[in-house]
Structure formats: structure tokens, C-alpha cells
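Sample entry copied in:
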Amino acid sequence: MKLDWLKRRLGHLYENPTPIDVDCHAPIGGDVRKITNLTFSPSVIIGYLLKSPFGGEGWIVSVDDLEDIIEGHVWLGEAYLFYSLGALSVFGFITCCFVWFNNNAYPSEFYWPTGPEASLAQAFTFLVRDQRLEANVRSAQGPTR
């Protein structure tokens, strides 16, 4: 038993015997072995998903190989990573817009000014500067230098 624990710590996995080979409740148990030949082929995983859940095919319950289970977890982990990174980018954009325009949740007295406030403050600063320089503000067609 101690050797099985050591093997699992070194990357080996416990494989339960299939009911066809041995009764699952038999005291014989399964085997601890190292998974070495993963295919990383999406067609294998998609093949399980395309099976019929009715009848004898068994849909994803019909996975009968430990390598396919590990391969499915690798693909699932990549999908989770992709979805979580996508969600972080979407939520970051939503938060940016919320903070930029919502002066009730983020008042300017405690945080930086919102985007429209900063834009108006910048426009007012340039207007005062141009008036001090005695520029004709009415004829200005765009940003001044």
C-alpha cells in the first residue's frame, strides 16, 4: 500500500478495474500505473460528446480508457482557462466604463474625476489659458497649442 501511495505521488494514477474484468467490489482492486501515451486529439473527446445519450452508446458515460479521461481533463482545463480569461477581460471593460462614467459610486471627492469631468476640466483649463494669452476664442477651430 505504501508503494502505491509513492507511485501516485510520482505521477502514477489508480485505475479501477472495469466491471467486465473484475467485480468492482472485489477485494482484488485495481492497478496503479503511469499514464504515458496521451493523444491530445480533440476528435476523441468530441467523439464521446457526439454519441447518443439514449440506447447502448452511453454518451460521455461510455469513456472506458483512463488516458481519455486524463485527456478530457486537459482539454477541459484549457477551456476553463480560456473562458476565465475572456470573462476577466469583459468584466474589466465593464468595470472601466462603470468607474469612468458613474459619479455616484465613485465620487470625485474621494477618487479621481470621472471621464466627462476630466474632459470638461481640461477644456476649461485651455479656455482660461487662451483667454489669458488674449487669443480669439470664438474663432478657434480645434485644440490649441
Observations:
- The chain is about 50% helix and 5% strand.
